[in-house]
Amino acid sequence: MNQQLSIAVFASGRGSNFQALHQALIAANSAATIALCISNNPNPGAFDFARQQGIATARLSPKMFAEEKEYEAALIELLASHGVELIVLAGYMRRLPHGVVQRWRGKILNIHPALLPDFGGQGMYGLNVHQAVIAAGRTESGATVHLVDEEYDTGAIIAQERVPVLPDDTPETLAARVLEAEHRLLPRVVMEMVAGKR
Q1: Which one of 4, 41, 51, 176 has the largest count of C-beta atoms within 10 Å of its C-beta?
Q2: Pair 86, 44: CB distance under 8 Å
């Protein structure tokens, strides 16, 4: 990928990974910019941050359309109208339509709060993931950035950062430690892709 890169971030909630990525791009004086923040929810915290930064926002949800194909077409049109070359899913709770994955294949990243391929798939999000890791008796967890394909969390793994699972961890304390790793890992991978190193 070249230096001039337009990024769309998809977020369902507060968008802390979105914020970490935006701040890292600014700090690095990167030519890559986040042009658009998309959510399936009407007013996520991510939109508040985007508006403060002058980043365009758009809500698009399958619930807003009679058919999936209409939703897919609207999403593709929106992304194309902003010249989006790289899509980053940052706490996004929906699967992308097939047509979007097909058109941007190899250029869609997701950040997942566990060491894939373990603890991935439908329903493995938020505290559910960390509860499962603790219940399984794991001594290590972490964050994974992977390419997105048609299924949940099954695309090729790009990079991981590991963190310890401590004996007295709760899902909440483990989540906080993993989130810190996410905030380091996602910007690093995106900037490596922008620089053509991945």
Answers
A1: 41
A2: no
Rounded to whole angstroms, the Cα distance separating 169 from 164 reads 10
Tell me the pLDDT tens digit for each residue of 124-160. 999 999 999 999 999 999 999 999 999 989 999 999 9
What CATH number did the domain enclosing 25 receive? 3.40.50.170
Q: Which of 22, 82, 112, 146 is catalytic?
A: 112
Instruction: Report how many domains make up the chain.
Output: 1
Confirm whether 32 is domain-assigned.
Answer: yes
Q: Which of 159, 163, 158 is nearest to 180 (CA)?
A: 163
**Phi, psi dihedrals of residue 32, rounded to the nearest 5°:** -75, 135
Q: Which range of residues forms the domain containing residue 183?
A: 6-194
Catalytic residue list contains 112:
yes
Query: What is the edge-to-edge ordering of all strands in the sheet holding 86-89?
Result: 56-59, 33-39, 6-10, 86-89, 108-112, 140-147, 157-164
